[in-house]
Amino acid sequence: MEIASLFIWEFISDVSFMLKVFVMMTLANWVRNHLGDSPVSWILIVGIGYFVLFDGWAVFGPIYLLYLLLGFGVSSIIIDFFFVGAGGPPEQEGIESPVSSGVDIMKRMGEKAAHMNVMRRR
């Protein structure tokens, strides 16, 4: 039992380290793209790196994970779950869609052909 719990905690620690490295590389790339290869960009990279890797990971990690989840489209699932009703769309009043089915299109084509025949007879 102790070996399994040790394995799980070591695995979580490794995943956390890999996520920190990925975040550090992402932020370093973002800073270099926006500020270039100047000394200011390197100072910012070192400062952000210290904050992300050591000091502020308890605050920054969950925020970054939420950002990743929202970036991967989890927000659409959340919006669908909370804001779209399960009963279907509400009844519409007024003008409906101009094309509702293939039968509707065939009916319109028949009416148009009938009008064209009337126009030809005159």
TrEMBL record:
Segments passing through the bilayer: 6-28, 40-58, 64-84
Superkingdom classification of source: Archaea
Record's keyword terms, sorted: Membrane, Transmembrane, Transmembrane helix
Record-given protein name: Uncharacterized protein
